[in-house]
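Working notes for the structural subgroup meeting. M.R. asked for a predicted model of this chain before we commit to crystallization trials. I am recording the input and output together here so anyone reviewing the notebook later can reproduce the run.

Input as submitted:
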Amino acid sequence: MTATVAHLVRHPIKAHGREDLASVRLSEGAALPWDRHWAVAHAGSKFDPAHPAWTPCGQFQRAARTRTLMAIAARWDEAAGEMRLTHPDLPPLTFRPGTEGVRLIDWLAPISPQDGPFRPVALVSAPGQAMTDSDFPSISIKNLASNAALAAHLGQDLSIHRWRGNIWLDGLAPWEERAWIGRTLRIGGARLRIEEPIGRCKATTGNPETGESDADTLGALDDLLGVQEFGVYATVIAAGEVAQGDRAVLE
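Returned structure, recorded in token form:
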């Protein structure tokens, strides 16, 4: 099996925007750099800022509950320490996540719950710990052919950004990645171990351009696979550079 890297994507703030990358250096035992580095805690969250640590996704604002979040795009400038977010229904926001989290919360107000336990209240992070959906530092790998097969079944285009993946591969058969669990994948200069399939949620029904729920992705997965899974989680077992166009080889 040989494929190529078609897209590299990171999501600096969990569920709040995506950013395309040309290349990235992966580190052993770590998530993709700056991916899910921050998350937005809601009023009912049990995230403890005094003892920050990985916390399950249900403790944060999520597109599964608030589909409009799917339409956020992000650009993180590490050197300047600035984040720029855009959304079709909001003015652009540029802010410093380290010191200006309250500006993000204010910006999100028009597209977020304002009452009850899911009202967003704070931008949070845990040093050295990505807020991935998995309880281990993961990188999500997706197959363009699987997305195309699902789109054909639904009879509509499906943006890759519905799936919030990190590495998208081209040149595979549909659903080929599902047979990789426990195998090692060399991508560019890095090696990754495929750990488990990714269970999906209602966030994937949301259109990343409009934020509207417009595709029964979960029903389609049930139809085609009998399970609501798309893509696989991997862990980095050997550090290295990965770039668009790199070869991916199953070992």
